[in-house]
TrEMBL record:
Keywords: Membrane, Transmembrane, Transmembrane helix. The keyword Membrane applies. This is PIR protein. The chain crosses the membrane at residues 125-148.
């Protein structure tokens, strides 16, 4: 018969946190913050109420378990993964951010446990955010460089076209001036010839 391995301290702590059930009374510091969540999602509301108890108990366990803050963050990240099934679950994401993450911030500010445990996110979540940020940055750089190149090409084409138009206008002016000059020149010769002819006839 196979012997089941003994559970680690972390597993035992996680099990006790999973089993924690608490309801907030009206005088609780956090009842006002979580009031809207009760009607929107009762399951998440129960977890949030339990978190207020778990956070306090974890602080009490800190002398015995120096890694308790890491455990607490890991446990909460696991709860988030269970609650938000995929990246497209926008409604649950919003509820989580609006209530659970804000609740954590309020728990941090408690005078008895003033910022003893700061919120940290799972490395996969941080990696996803970093990947998305880099992709957005690269896309922005590419778009701006294309716009810049397009605008310089456009300016170059405008200058080239304007130059051609001006050259055409100048050449047409020169041609028309030469034609006018030729007309005047031959017109004057014709007039002179007329005068000469007139003088011979008289």
């Amino acid at each position: 018969m196979a012997v089941t391995p003994a559970k680690s301290e972390k597993e035992k702590i996680f099990e006790s946190w999973d089993a924690t059930s608490k309801t907030l009374d009206a005088s609780s510091l956090y009842s006002e913050l979580l009031k809207g969540l009760m009607t929107e999602n009762n399951e998440l509301y129960k977890m949030a109420c339990s978190l207020t108890e778990i956070y306090t108990n974890a602080h009490i366990l800190q002398p015995k378990h120096p890694n308790i803050c890491e455990f607490l963050n890991e446990w909460l990240n696991n709860q988030k993964t269970k609650y938000i099934k995929n990246e497209d679950d926008m409604q649950n994401k919003k509820l989580w951010n609006d209530y659970i993450e804000k609740l954590w911030i309020e728990l941090e500010k408690d005078n008895d446990r003033y910022y003893w445990c700061r919120r940290s996110f799972s490395s996969s979540l941080v990696a996803n955010v970093l990947t998305i940020s880099i992709a957005v940055l690269i896309s922005t750089v590419i778009i701006f460089s294309l716009i810049y190149k397009y605008s310089t090409i456009r300016i170059f084409l405008h200058a080239y076209i304007n130059k051609k138009i001006k050259l055409k206008q100048y050449s047409q002016k020169d041609i028309s001036n030469e034609l006018l000059g030729t007309i005047f020149k031959y017109g004057n010769l014709h007039e002179t010839n007329k005068r000469i002819n007139l003088s011979y006839n008289s």
